[in-house]
Design brief:
Layout: H1 2-17, H2 40-64, H3 71-76, E1 94-98, E2 101-106, E3 122-123
Antiparallel strand pairs: 1-2, 2-3
Helix pairs in contact: 1-2
Length: 130
Amino acid sequence: MRRLFAALLGASLLITTGCPSDEPSAGPVANPGGESIVHQGSKTKLRMSMTHVRKGCEAYIAVEGTPPESLEQVIAAGHLEAGDTLDLWGNQYMIEPTGSTVRVYTYGADGEEGGEGADQDWSNEDLEPR
């Protein structure tokens, strides 16, 4: 089931963002939005990544009956892979229980609270389609 979800996520990323370039990736994107903002394509990738983490946490809640205290618990329970919990900049996502789900958030490129442009803090709530 997890492989099917991963395949569907990969296909939706391909549809949303287009085909990857032929050039090898150098790892996480250091500044996906330029100097002042995170551009729409990166916002979409960030939203999809955060949604995947949130869904893994919700699966944990469904099985365990309580929200996870950390992403390590969700990984240990087999609902996420370790690489799934990294943001676009290679920083660990953070979670906060909010009732029957969790809020997933990141501190952006610099990994520190606050900031502007690529250093801006983002949560899944900020990126929900309106």
